[in-house]
Amino acid sequence: MKPVALFPLAAAVALANISTFAHADNSDLEARIADLEARLAAAEMRDSQPVEPNTTTVNERLDTLERKASSGEGLSLNGYARSGLLIGEDAKSISGGPYVTPAGPLGGAVGRLGNEPDTYVNLMFNLRKQLDSGARSLFRVAIADSVTTSNDWTANESELNVRQVYVELDQLPSFTGAFADAAIWAGKRIDRETFDIHWLDSDVVFLAGTGAGIYDVKPTANWRTNFSVYGRSFSDFPVGDPRNPGSGDTDSLIATSNNYVGNWQFMVNAISAADNDERLTQSSDTAADNGAHGMVAYHGDSFFGLADGNFKAALLYGQGLGAEVKRLGSNGDLLDDAQTARLAVYGTTYLSPTWRIAPALLAETSEDRFSQGDSYRWITANARIANELTRNFEMQYELSYQYMDLDPEGYQNRNAVSGEFAKFTIAPTFKLDVGGFWKRPEVRAFASYTDWSRELNGYDTQDAFGNDNFTGGQWSFGVQAETFF
Question: Signal peptide location in the record (predicted)?
Fold first, then answer.
């Protein structure tokens, strides 16, 4: 805009103002005209200045968006949930769950299909960031809840819990050599390398607590190793005079070295709980204040070398506080002489284009666990089978068997028993798309028949076995939704 063009406009505006506000004094009009002239001059100056190019080009913006998409930057949600009804022959809710048998408190799980009476949810909220340097961060919060009531409002029964809160950093530019791909973390978490037998709802090994560690250190091309220290709390256990006990507490500290060489995994754990040996035990034996634990596992990329699929096999051994071989460092009642060995095996494969199978075996033997001379032996064999009938419908079947020989030596007034448990389930199942054991969500109905040796009803007066309407040889029915994402 040329300067000469501004004067007619300014004059016109000034005349209009004079005509409209004739009653205003001259000084007020002059101030208004001066202000208008200044604003027009500023506009002219802006128009005459060259436009600077945008420093963020379209390509740079696209690169940033593509990087965020490929790295999963931003807020995300994943988790697991199930909810359903489990009804007995008398049209009332009955006891159930993978740990319903007398061997259950020892980790002796049975098949879960058509055997779960609860609503359970575990949700993980993740916030991921990545810098231009490539450095990445993960902040995770996980909440979980479990109830057995069928009501919609369950505040009185809720066990809502913040299960994980931690930060993890990886791809740090200052990490080089063996640490180039390493990730460091701190906070409250479930260890990344935990793995389970889904059909039994049983972890093979479960490491969790509050602490810090480092993943993915690579001393050689074929050797990957993790190191961590976790803390767990032992609280309000009895100490002092048995006739008038006080209350004690301590921390269970677990130092872990977890190593991967090819398909093999070698895990070693040292556990310490200072002053836990002062705990008063029911058997008057000495509780452990330390322990050791080890696991050798193989993660196969075929079905035992026989067909396409996968399998995992693990052998675990623990002593003292390590004799709880699944949930590491979680049981302070273990004796100093406690010993446990466990075997876990499972796999998945297709028998034909429309039939698939997932067999599993879980077995454990332990002695001097809670009372000198006690012994616990159990073994579970399970098979989940599915027949894919349409793209969205399949029939699922599960056969589960457990044998147990339990001699608690009077611990918690339990009695020595031996016997068998068996369950058969048929479950019509709807899915978005069939094609494997890991596709969810699933909506299913089911019918299960369970039976067990009558001797098992006398193991513990506090457990479900032998209670009214739960004595074996009976059918149960229900519906369930299950998903993970």
Answer: 1-24
Whether the CB-CB separation of 407 and 421 falls below 8 Å is answered with no
Q: CA 446 to CA 394: how far, in whole Å?
A: 12
| Partner residues linked to 341 by β-bridges | 317, 365
Dump pLDDT digits (tens) for 227-252: 999 999 999 999 988 888 999 999 99
Compute the distance between CA of residue 358 and CA of residue 396 in angstroms, rounded to an integer. Answer: 11
Instruction: Find the domain containing 384 and state its range.
Output: 75-484
**Distance, C-alpha 411 to centroid of its chain:** 32
pLDDT at residue number 13: 42
What phi and psi, each to the nearest 5 degrees, are found at residue 32? -65, -45
> Could you tell me the pTM of the whole model?
0.85
φ, ψ at 131 (rounded to 5°): -90, 170
61 lies in a domain?
no
Q: Respond yes or no on whether the N-terminal peptide bond of residue 8 is cis (omega within 30° of 0).
A: no
Helices (H), 240-385: none
- The pLDDT value recorded for residue 8 is 43
Task: Count Cβ atoms within 10 A of the Cβ of residue 288 and give its class: 0-12 exposed, 13-18 middle, 19 or more buried.
Answer: buried
Q: Which two tokens mark 291?
A: 């322990």
Residue 186's CATH number: 2.40.170.10
For tokens 């009476």, name the residue. Answer: 117
Q: Cα separation of 7 and 9, whole Å?
A: 5
- Distance from C-alpha of 358 to C-alpha of 381, rounded to nearest angstrom: 11
Looking at the structure, tell me whether residues 223 and 363 fall in a common domain.
Answer: yes
Classified as helix, coil or strand, 442 is strand
d(CA 227, CA 139): 20
Ranges of the chain whose pLDDT falls below 50: 1-24, 51-53, 55
Does the residue 59 lie in any domain? no
Token couple for 226:
């993790």
- From the CB of residue 339, how many other CB atoms can be counted at a distance below 10 Å? 18
The phi and psi torsions of 371 (rounded to 5 degrees) equal -150, 135
Mapped onto helix, strand or coil, the DSSP state of residue 8 is helix
Count of Cβ atoms closer than 10 Å to residue 433 Cβ: 9
Q: Are residues 447 and 334 in the same domain?
A: yes
Catalogue the E-assigned strands of 307-416. 310-320, 339-352, 355-367, 375-388, 393-407
Q: For 379, what's the count of Cα atoms within 13 Å in the CB-facing half-sphere?
A: 5
Task: Examine residue 67 and state whether it is found in any structural domain, yes or no.
Answer: no
